[in-house]
Design goal:
5-stranded parallel β-sheet, 2 domains, 19% strand
Length: 254
């Protein structure tokens, strides 16, 4: 299948929000021209950029290089982007992943988000827009890590569930639970406001930064996986509850 190429090279503009010194990006892209375009652009901005040309190389680099974020093409040789995302998420659930796809297809975008990608862009794309997306996911990661000297938020404790926002840790009755970034954000939001109902539209706009109604399935898939990790019986949830026709909420029972 023919792949869509990126737009013509763009010169990075000076930004008041530069990357931290030697902040590392991993670019997994098999098209040499697109790979070089992204690499040169972000190196010019001051990032340390490492690359891989296929899915297997991307998985190895994600573990060996320990990047701050990954830019991942969907259509790759050896392992496709979905398989790469799944394998990386199993060992590093907090790594921000931006997926690139040549397909302007809702199904592919939804699949990418369901596999744990934090964002996506459809080719051909603007390098300046990609820069903005990278900065956005890194900014959120820094904020979650407690950078900036702000006071660490207090842990949230609900019915044997303990959520530590500053450490990004979740335990149930003392047992550690591994969550992806989106699963953590959903659970922390729900647990911080027990009884409050959140619509799918609100969650898409505030957790994913999307406004498209076609992504309801993404919310439901994340909720199902979250329940599988935090509920004693996911088929009969007692913590994350469905409000039929509206959305979801965290139980307000003591």
């Amino acid at each position: 299948m023919q792949k869509t190429r990126a737009k013509e090279p763009e010169l990075p503009q000076k930004s008041p929000d530069p990357p931290a010194p030697a902040e590392k990006l991993l670019v997994v892209e098999d098209d040499p021209a697109i790979q070089q375009m992204i690499r040169d652009y972000f190196r010019h901005l001051g990032y340390d950029v490492v690359t891989a040309g296929d899915g297997e190389g991307g998985v190895k680099a994600a573990f060996a290089e320990r990047p701050a974020a990954m830019i991942l093409d969907l259509m790759l040789p050896k392992l496709d982007g979905l398989a790469v995302c799944r394998q990386v998420r199993e060992r590093n659930p907090s790594l921000p992943i931006i997926m690139l796809t040549a397909k302007d297809d809702l199904v592919d975008k939804v699949l990418g988000l369901e596999m744990g990608a934090d964002d996506y862009m459809t080719k051909p794309f603007s390098l300046r827009e990609l820069e903005a997306r990278v900065k956005s996911v890194l900014r959120r990661t820094r904020a979650k890590a407690g950078e900036g000297g702000a006071e660490d938020p207090a842990p949230i404790v609900r019915r044997g569930l303990r959520i530590d926002p500053s450490r990004r840790e979740v335990t149930i009755e003392g047992r550690a639970v591994e969550l992806t970034p989106k699963e953590f954000e959903l659970l922390a939001l729900f647990a911080a406001h027990p009884g409050r109902v959140y619509s799918r539209k609100f969650l898409l706009e505030n957790i994913w930064d999307y406004t498209y109604s076609g992504y309801d399935r993404t919310i439901d898939s994340h909720i199902n996986r979250l329940r599988a990790k935090v509920e004693e019986d996911p088929e009969r949830p007692k913590l994350v509850l469905t409000v039929w026709g509206v959305g979801y909420k965290f139980t307000d029972e003591a």
